[in-house]
From TrEMBL:
Recorded GO CC terms: endoplasmic reticulum membrane
Compartment annotation: Membrane
UniProt protein name: Extended synaptotagmin-2-B
Residues spanning the signal sequence: none
PROSITE patterns in the cross-refs: C2, SMP
Disordered: annotated span: 1-27, 592-702
Biased composition (Pro residues): 609-620
GO biological process: endoplasmic reticulum-plasma membrane tethering; lipid transport
Any one GO molecular-function label of the UniProt entry: phosphatidylethanolamine binding
Compositional bias segments (type: Polar residues): 653-664
InterPro entries, A to Z: C2_dom, C2_domain_sf, C2C_KIAA1228, Ext_Synaptotagmin_C2B, Extended_Synaptotagmin, SMP_LBD, Synaptotagmin_SMP
Length: 831
């Protein structure tokens, strides 16, 4: 992964410039949004008879409700339930309003002291590298913000409003209409900017910006005639800007692409009559719809694209170039939390949601279990294989209230899968006390060779999965007929491939529309599937023309591509044409992505091989060359405990010294073959007897067991990632009943249940292999002072006491965790 401190990267850190305001005034309280509002004096009317009547009338419904419940002999449980729900709702609103006001202060004001006064209350996306380097960019945004507001208003009316209207119909909320859209006077702020010069094409510029918006926007709408609005709208996330292709004329690049790598964080408050939706369980409807529309507009695979030069074809800017396809198999989960408790017996009704960018899939719900088995497949088109993430969330289905409880979440770095081609892994769930999920992930590279289709299509087609990727670029149409004689049509195109349909946006009142939109499909069998293109009129719903293309015909074309092809439309005018470009790519499974470095998007951990070898022993003055033994070596002694990352497999093939006498006769031959020999110290000869004794079950004096760990810190996610690989040579190997070990972790000094992590139990072995991943949330400033306690416990017998076998403490401040460190740690036997 690219180091964020590399001199090759041009990093412009976050700007929050200091102002002349005094620190003492902001340490007491965050600056109010309206400083002119003064505390009002108590009104004397409140002491009058009218004031007393108002107070009585305000409390009358509550008193009457309590009286009615007593009169009709209602159980006291009803009163307690209503009071509990009211109190919980009120507390939830207070907490959210406080959190939003804190975030708004950090996004609006330039005063560094304002931010530092409440640093503990700020959201996770606020950080403080430098406060003055992005000042020029934020000043530009403030100057052009009115123009941005007009442009965004048109986009919302043309693209976002129709999507929200269609989505709300599923909830029986029709008649949605935007009435007022104003972004206000406060622009979004740029926190950090990073420009890449590695792993990018020479013909493009890639830039990431950490943005946050907490402005004074005023958005009004109506739903079924009910007036409502949105205030305190906040959004934060990582925005990527790609400028390509580079040209030799002003403005030096032909186009620009803008998109979010992953879904941004969105929050807002509702006002007006629809404020009744703004409560737990119900406000999720409108919130979910709005987030979906933002994703459909700006989150990969969707992009906001502009062509800036006439010398560049729009296809070069707007047609997508996916990195590959990620297939996720959600196999099962285990040890999930018990959310529904009846008579002391716990259960849950879990389901999982898998997300990459704006693409989302949901498994079926498995009822009454904490160990569900889904065996669910889903596939994602990945556009930025080096930067995108796969998110998994597990929920407990509550059919009574509809408010599903979280059972945990997990994050997978897609590039860690793309590098190896395929992964079968158990992932520990975050933000819960227990739970793991079993995933099988396969990376598919994209090729334009039809021969590869015949080689790999049979297996995937038998499962009903995809074997090819289809890109359809709808450019324009000419001479379309009018659906009505009185006016021109409002045409849009519906594209159908297999059982999936997508449509372009509509163009108003024209017979010669230009769309310039690209649609991406996953195809099961290109040899039998067809592509349907249908031009429709939005105003009347009538068909303006259609065309059918057999995908098998693309297999014979050069690079399986049809470029800028005018198609004659059936059931249309005599001169009606639809101009499209079509590309077909074959999905090749298990093909690793080329390159071994990635764009830096937060130092996310990648898992090492399941059983990485230990470091070789240090060289000495006298060495003997022998051929490496095919059996893996068992690490011994304290010399393996160091803070350097584990070397690659080719460089760390250590030597097992069993059978030295047989190798001595071929010593000269092994020395002549340097590529097949390794340097081994004479002291290693003395270790052979120790290894043999350990393999027989005895533990020689001065020799300890060892545990192999991988440690890594993700600065953007503020996560400490720990992979417990295996433990070598535990005591008890010579006993008739070997131990049942497992590993328990604590992040000191915290010894609570929230800090405890533990692996599964491995039966009857002194050399257990775990390969399990755990995560802790740790602030960067606290990481050097934290310690990781690793204990190996023997869980022999169902009701037996769990004796401590051995343990160690890892001081995190002694290791550079900006990159993954894989290492053996000595374990001290229990006393």
């Amino acid at each position: 992964m690219t180091d964020t401190k590399s001199t090759d990267d041009v990093t412009i850190s976050r700007e929050m410039s200091s102002s002349s305001s005094k620190t003492s005034s902001v340490e007491k309280e965050i600056v109010p949004v309206n400083r002119s509002i003064k505390k009002k004096k108590p009104n004397s009317v409140s002491k009058s008879l009218v004031g007393l009547c108002k107070i009585a009338a305000k409390h009358l419904p509550l008193v009457f409700g309590v009286y009615a419940m007593g009169y009709f002999n209602f159980s006291i449980a009803w009163i307690l339930g209503i009071v509990g729900i009211t109190a919980a709702t009120d507390q939830w609103r207070k907490e959210r309003n406080y959190r939003m006001s804190t975030a708004r202060a950090s996004a609006i004001y330039d005063d560094k002291d304002v931010i530092m006064a409440r640093v503990s209350d700020l959201p996770s996306w606020v950080f403080f590298p430098d406060f003055d380097r992005a000042e020029w960019l934020n000043k530009i945004l403030k100057q052009v913000w009115p123009n941005v507001g007009h442009y965004v208003r048109n986009i919302i009316l043309e693209s976002v409003q129709p999507g929200i209207r269609e989505s709300l119909k599923a909830y029986k909320l029709g008649g949605f209409k935007m009435e007022k859209i104003s972004l206000g006077t406060m622009p979004f702020r740029v926190g950090g900017v990073k420009v890449y010069d590695k792993n990018v094409s020479r013909n493009e510029i890639v830039m990431d910006m950490d943005i946050c918006y907490a402005g004074d926007c005023d958005i009004r709408f109506s739903v079924k005639g009910l007036k409502g609005g949105i205030k305190d709208f906040q959004m934060s996330g990582m925005l990527r800007v790609v400028m390509k292709p580079l040209i030799s004329q002003i403005p030096l690049f032909g186009g620009i692409q803008i998109f979010f790598l992953n879904s941004p964080s969105v929050d807002f408050n509702l006002i007006g009559v629809v404020d009744v939706l703004d409560m737990p369980g119900l406000n999720g409807i409108l919130r979910r719809v709005i987030i979906e529309q933002i994703g459909a507009f700006l989150v990969l695979p969707n992009k906001l694209t502009f062509t800036l030069s006439d010398v560049v074809s729009p296809i070069a800017v707007k047609i997508p170039e996916p990195s590959g396809v990620l297939r996720v198999r959600v196999v099962e989960a285990k040890q999930l939390m018990k959310m529904d408790r009846v008579l002391g017996i716990g259960k849950s009704d879990p389901y999982a949601i898998v997300t990459v960018g704006s693409q989302e899939f949901r498994t079926k719900t498995i009822y009454n279990t904490v160990n569900p088995k889904w065996d669910f497949y889903c596939e994602f088109v990945v556009h930025e294989g080096r930067s995108q993430l796969c998110f998994l969330r597990i929920f407990d289905r509550d059919e009574t209230t509809g408010d599903d409880d979280s059972l945990g979440k997990a994050t997978v770095d897609i590039y860690s899968v793309a590098k190896v081609g395929k992964k079968d892994m158990w992932v520990t769930l975050e933000d819960v006390k227990s739970g793991m999920i079993h995933l099988e992930l396969t990376w598919f590279s994209l090729m334009d060779d039809p021969v590869m289709l015949k080689m790999h299509a049979a297996e995937t087609q038998s499962l009903g999965l995809s074997s090819a990727l289809l890109i359809v670029y709808v450019d324009s149409a000419t001479s379309l007929p009018s659906a009505r004689t009185s006016s021109k049509p409002d045409p849009y195109v519906i594209v159908t491939a297999g059982n999936r349909s997508e449509q372009t946006s509509a163009r108003m009142r024209t017979c010669d529309p230009t769309w310039e939109q690209a649609l991406v499909f996953l195809v099961c069998n290109p040899e039998s599937d067809d592509l349907y293109l249908k031009v429709m009129d939005q105003k009347t719903g009538g068909e303006l023309g259609m065309e059918k293309i057999t995908l098998v015909s693309l297999l014979t074309l050069p690079e399986m591509e049809l470029s800028h092809q005018p198609l004659s439309l059936k059931n249309s005018g005599p001169e009606s044409k639809l101009i499209v470009s079509i590309r077909l790519k074959v999905m090749v499974p298990g093909q690793p992505m080329e390159g071994d470095t990635i764009l830096d998007t937060g130092d996310f951990a990648t898992e090492p091989p399941s059983t990485p070898p230990p470091p070789p022993p240090p060289p000495s003055a006298e060495t003997v060359k022998v051929k490496p033994d095919p059996k893996p070596d068992v690490p011994v002694g304290n010399d393996t405990q160091n803070s350097t990352p584990a070397p690659s497999a080719a460089a760390s093939d250590t030597v097992s010294l069993s059978g030295i006498s047989e190798r001595t006769s071929s010593l000269d031959k092994s020395m002549s073959s340097s590529t097949n020999t390794l340097s081994v110290t004479k002291t290693s000869l003395d270790r052979e007897s120790s290894i043999r004794r350990r393999q027989k079950g005895g533990l020689p004096p001065g020799v300890v067991s060892q545990v192999q760990l991988t440690l890594r810190y993700s600065s953007q996610r503020q996560r400490l990632i720990i992979v417990v690989h295996k433990v070598s040579q535990l005591p008890g190997g010579d006993q008739p009943d070997p131990p049942d070990p497992y590993v328990k972790l604590y992040l000191l000094p915290d010894r609570s249940t929230n800090s405890k992590r533990k692996t599964d139990i491995v039966k009857d072995t002194v050399n257990p292999v775990f390969d399990e991943t755990f995560e802790y949330t740790v602030a960067p400033i606290d990481l050097p002072a934290r310690e990781l306690e690793v204990s190996v416990i023997n869980r022999k017998g169902r009701f037996a006491r769990s004796p401590l076998m051995c343990s160690c403490v890892v001081i995190l401040g002694h290791h550079d965790l900006s990159q993954a460190v894989t290492q053996w740690f000595d374990l001290k036997p229990s006393e």
